[in-house]
Structure formats: structure tokens, C-alpha cells
Specification:
The protein has a domain of 129 residues: Mannose-Binding Protein A, Chain A (Roll). It is built from four helices and eight strands, in the order αββαβαβββββα. The chain is an alpha+beta fold. Strand 1 and strand 2 form a beta hairpin.
Length: 185
Amino acid sequence: MKATTFLLGSLLIVPLMGWHALAGKHYTTKKGIQYYIEHLYQYTWFEAYFECAYRNMSLYTYGSQAEFNDLYELLTSDKFPDKPPHAWIGAVGVKGKFIWIKNQKPMTELHLWAENNPDNSKDIEHCLQIWHSKKFLNDLDCLRKIGFVCEIRRDAEALSPAATGYVESGKYKGLTINLYQNNVH
């Protein structure tokens, strides 16, 4: 009797957990660039960063206007209910100055900002998103829950076990977390 109950419980629980965990999906643009896109609004910027690193990917970093247009075309396709969905990408900032996390370069693509942005509304908008229904970027509170776009890490070879001497084991391979403390008195 206990085995039957456990089996029945497993059959009911596993499909629900599996659906939730597999909501995001890999997509390929018309130009052949691969992305992992989560369109469900369930992730803070930090969780999105982790989800990409967990997949040995990184949050999307702007490479060129052609690449951005290619991604935007994918995000506005019939694959997503919101066109494009609100989605975290890989830049953070303070006081209107943003940097791309992956390459530590300043965000100089000013033409991508939505009108009157970055605005750092209420002094809490420090993370970058692709704005829903617009072909522009917006700064947003990092704790808001939205979707995200991961890209295949262009530095994947540099992070391979052969190059680093580390063995890839477990589900956290490729994750780097930098912690800083600001002691302002």
C-alpha cells in the first residue's frame, strides 16, 4: 500500500515539477545564433544570472546591431506570447552608467535605450532588460521577476577544464560569483 501511494504521488508531482523546470527553451535565430530564453516572469536578475551560469551560458551581451536585430526578431516571433517578453540581459549599472558583466565593458550603445532611460526610477533600477513590446532597453529593479536571455559563452574554451585545471563536476560548472562590500560610514 505504501509503495502504491508513493508511486502515485511521484507520478503526480514529477510531471508538474518537470514542466516548471523546463519552461525555458533553446532557440536558434535565422542567422544561426543559439540562445536559451525563459519567457516566464519568474526570475530576478540574480536568479537569471545563475540560471545562465548553471547552463554554462551567460546573460546576453550586446555584440553588434545586426546580432541584436536578429535576437529581437526571434523574441517577436510567434514562439512567445509577449513580443518581445520582458527579459533580463547581462548589464548592470549605477547612476546611469552601465557595464556588460561578461566583458566588463561600458555600455556605449546609447541608441538602444528607450526614451528617457536609463532613469534609475526611485534609485533602485540597476539591471538591464529588453523591454516588453519595444525594441529598446530599460533599467529595472534587479529584484523584479521577469524572463531572461542566455547566450552561449564566447569564452567557453577559456573556461574549459583543460585550460583552468578544474574538473567540471556537479551542476554549478562555469559559475563565478564576485562579492563586494561597500563600507560607507
